[in-house]
Write a structure and sequence with these properties.
single chain, about 180 residues, alpha+beta, Tetrahydropterin Synthase, Chain A, 3-stranded antiparallel β-sheet, 7 helices
Amino acid sequence: MSEDEDNGAAAAPPAAKSKALPILLVINTLLLTGVLIFVMKRPAAQAHGGAAEAKAAEGHGEGHGEGKEEKPAGEHGGAEEAGGPGPTVRFDNFTVQLKSLDVDRYAHLGMEIELADEVTKGRVERKVAPIRDLILGYLSDRTPDELRGSEGLKQLKEAMIKNLEELIPGHRVRAVYITDFIIQ
């Protein structure tokens, strides 16, 4: 009889576990659903809050002078306050003969420019030819050694931002992204 009692006692705990497992799965599913709903609704609330903060900052920033220039009414305050990415303009790939004394060397480069707002994006899209000319002119004066490595790309990006801000004054270029780069 002791064997039968042991078998009966051993059978009882799995039955209790089998009831607990579905309950835990249901609870986990409900919690996960709640978290997903919270996360999905959160960006919309931040965008509205960011726009309100931008309007408040614009009202308080009148004495500083640059607050009004940087943030036109309702344009890009929400995305910039939240730290989100701005609109980008992608350029067709560039192939440029580099400055080299001994052999012909070429750079193949893909580039995307992140801007502060949609107004700036529109201005950049209207000036594609002058911007491409600027980039080609800059690259053709570089040697392969000046463009190699992360330091070379960093200097290239900084120079492009500076040159683009001179070409399109009063508008902010947030970043230059090198999307493709080969030296041959």
